[in-house]
Amino acid sequence: IFERVGFSSKMNEIEAAIGLGNLAHFEENLKRRRKNFALLTECLKEFSDYFFFLQEASHEQIGPHAFPIILKPEAGFTRDEFIVYLAQHGIDSRDLFSSIPTECSGYRFLGYQPGAFPVAEYISAHGLHVGVHQDIGKGEIEYLAESIRQFLRGKGLR
């Protein structure tokens, strides 16, 4: 949520030192994150009746920091129910970004009203993301898939 327009340059000395120290591992970390993204895509595709998932096109290469999951309108449950269930099972998630022109007070001066950006607002209200961190492995990804399976069974959807 952006309360005012400005820069997001929050790096302090310790964050800069950590960042410089990690540059040597960048390529390997990116490779592992891409592998996790691909494995999540494969493991979660069975749930495509309930969720939209990001698809990498043949002409692009995603450098993921997270794996977005967006509930379909006909999912039969809310994002909040899903997030609570994941948290109860030790799976961390975050909401996706807000629709900046209509949901962030710092951009009210633009004059947009709710409904002006229906897709962005839908994603904001129904989207979340889970991690693809380079230290996540196949076991954690399979646990996420099994947890989603159990959640859907509990809702009588599978």
Précis, in short:
This protein has 158 residues and is α+β, with helices and mostly antiparallel strands. It contains six helices and four strands.
What does this protein structure show overall?
The chain is α+β, with helices and mostly antiparallel strands and 158 residues long. The chain has six helices and four strands. It has helices at residues 13-22, 26-44, 79-88, 100-103, 118-126, 138-154, and strands at 51-53, 66-71, 94-95, 127-131. A four-stranded antiparallel sheet has the order 1-2-4-3. The radius of gyration is 18 Å and the shape is globular. The mean pLDDT is 92.
Uncertain residue segments = none
The tally of strands reads 4
Q: Indicate the radius of gyration in whole angstroms.
A: 18 Å
Measured by DSSP, the beta-strand proportion falls in: 5-15%
Cross-sheet strand order for the largest sheet: 1-2-4-3
Order of helices and strands: HHEEHEHHEH
Oligomeric status:
single chain
Please outline the major beta sheet: 4 strands, antiparallel
The helical percent reads 40-55%
- How many individual helices? 6
Structural class: alpha+beta
Inertia-based shape: globular
What is the first-to-last residue Cα distance? 35 Å
Topology:
Elements lengths: L12 H10 L3 H19 L6 E3 L12 E6 L7 H10 L5 E2 L4 H4 L14 H9 E5 L6 H17 L4
Helix pairs in contact: 2-6
Overview features:
alpha+beta; 4-stranded antiparallel sheet; 4 strands; about 45% helix
